[in-house]
């Protein structure tokens, strides 16, 4: 989702909450949440290292012409964007219930259609010159000599805080530390041009881990309402079909640009607000029932409730988005033409889920509320 849509979606979610629970958030708090939701794409929290010849210290003083180069942004795109996917298309994950973006170890290389030169913006700006390459293929080619600098690797200086924050290694009981998990997740390139290592073979963190971490931070520091911004961002990105299919291409940019226009047109309409309010009320007042342990595609038919963990709401949205990727858009094999019914449904769900989490957060920070909802993130 683009910055504009994140702002519009978060503002509307706050408006829905205000209509249901007047006075929930101050104007200053609302502004902080909206701004942080819009800025999450620009967090410089994941460092890539460009290997020039043989691997060496990218942070050494007095750079040499052949010294490896560390960077958190490629051209104009922050690397944190790689952590904003939930690869439902691949099926069960290796590191999480569902893994994040990966070219070689995920779905990004499957059924690529759109050529890099045909992208109207986004990643296409710096891979357009790769004639004949598909979008994800071009990104993997462009970054093939690089590795993700994570804990456990030589010369690491807390330069990739995302790796420390978003690792949930305890969940699957495979790795005994975040260091062990990240070393397996991001295979280290010793020198340029290796196969089986570097960015194409890395498995980035899924977007539900991002929501999980920042919601836990909010619970620990409830006065820091801006921590809810990246939670909003994660929920909203999960509602994008391409994020749930684990791909950068296949008209991803064009889809999100069309979504901006749809949101701008429909969000001010009273009937759209009312359908979101109705959905939130249905979820908010729903009996708890059996809480999901791990959501499978079959659980896409379930109805969420206020007691669901935030990360499960993210996964549930991604299940809906993946269904749209397959059924509403036919995996974009014939290009992109906006499906208004699908756009309306996914945006309604994104706004409603954002509003539900804001209500949940407000309850958790009220007197007695934190005790009532303790442990809901799985981290505290």
Write the layout of secondary structure elements.
Elements: H1 3-20, H2 27-39, E1 48-50, E2 69-71, E3 73-74, E4 77-78, H3 124-127, H4 135-142, E5 146-148, H5 161-165, H6 178-185, H7 207-220, H8 228-238, H9 241-245, H10 252-266, H11 270-284, H12 310-328, H13 340-365, H14 369-373
Antiparallel strand pairs: 1-2, 1-5, 3-4
Could you explain how this protein is built, in words?
- Helix 1 crosses helix 13.
- A hairpin with a 2-residue loop joins strand 3 (73-74) and strand 4 (77-78).
- The relative contact order is 0.16.
- This protein has a domain at 3-42 and 207-373.
- Strands 2-1-5 form a three-stranded antiparallel β-sheet, with no helix packed on it.
- The protein starts with a helix and ends in a 7-residue tail after the last helix.
- With 380 residues, the chain is mainly α.
- The chain has helices at residues 3-20, 27-39, 124-127, 135-142, 161-165, 178-185, 207-220, 228-238, 241-245, 252-266, 270-284, 310-328, 340-365, 369-373; strands at residues 48-50, 69-71, 73-74, 77-78, 146-148.
